[in-house]
Amino acid sequence: MVAEQSEVVVGYLLAHALPTLFAGGPILEIVELVVDPEKRGEGVGRALVEHALTEAWSNGCVEVVAPTRRAAAFYEHLGFEPTATYFKRKRP
């Protein structure tokens, strides 16, 4: 999803749906959310997330997740709850 103002990209959200057993149905995982630093605080990120939520619910997803620590306050403000620690292993 892309947010534009005056034909200029000011933000984007990358997400994908995953079938799961643990959640009781498919989930939408927000992989990346980026907003132009000069446009932060203007509702661009919120609009992108709200659009992703609408799409997720209309496509049968049972939850939307955002694996991040850096943007915790942003997602909590939008009604998300912290649920787990995210582990990763980089390629050697």
Automatic annotation (TrEMBL):
The keyword Transferase applies. InterPro entries: Acyl_CoA_acyltransferase (IPR016181), Bact_Acetyltransf (IPR050832), GNAT_dom (IPR000182). Keywords: Acyltransferase, Transferase. The keyword DNA-binding does not apply. GO terms for molecular function: acyltransferase activity, transferring groups other than amino-acyl groups. CDD domains: NAT_SF. It comes from the Bacteria. Residues 1-92 form the N-acetyltransferase domain. Pfam families: Acetyltransf_1. This is GCN5-like N-acetyltransferase. The lineage of its organism: Bacteria, Bacillati, Armatimonadota, Fimbriimonadia, Fimbriimonadales.
